[in-house]
Amino acid sequence: MTETEIDVLIRESLESTKKLVLYNDDVNSFEHVIDCLMKYCKHSSVQAEQCSLLIHHKGACNVKNGSFDDLFPIYTALLDNKLNVKIE
């Protein structure tokens, strides 16, 4: 395999990786956000708490990376729980 072919494979792999971004809102409590991150994103309690603080102070946080197919069920579960989330 040539160096150019390897570069193309790496670029395609990176482009196919999506981010699940959770945005701040004035509706949901820290506890609800933390519970959802633990339940659906499989975060530890510490990781979920850190993400919730980032969301609160920065406005958003990338809570999960993966393929669209892997992220979509998590995305819909978070939406069903009234969280403001997007796949980017």
How would you summarize what this structure contains?
The chain has 88 residues and is an alpha+beta fold.
* Shape, principal axes of CA atoms: elongated
Q: Hey, roughly how much beta strand do the residues contain?
A: 15-25%
Our measurement of the CA-to-CA distance between the termini, rounded to an integer number of angstroms, reads: 31 Å
The succession of helices and strands, N to C, reads: HEHHEHE
Helix coverage percent: 55-70%
> Largest beta sheet: what is the strand line-up?
2-1-3
The residue ranges in which pLDDT falls below 50 over 5 or more consecutive positions are: none
Overall pLDDT metric: 91
Please explain how this structure is put together.
There is one protein chain. This protein has 88 residues and is of the alpha+beta class. Helices cover 59% and strands 19% of the residues. A three-stranded antiparallel beta sheet has the order 2-1-3.
Q: Could you give the topology of this structure?
A:
Elements: H1 3-16, E1 18-23, H2 30-40, H3 45-58, E2 60-66, H4 68-80, E3 84-87
Helix pairs in contact: 2-3
Features:
88 residues, three-stranded antiparallel sheet, 3 strands, alpha+beta, single chain
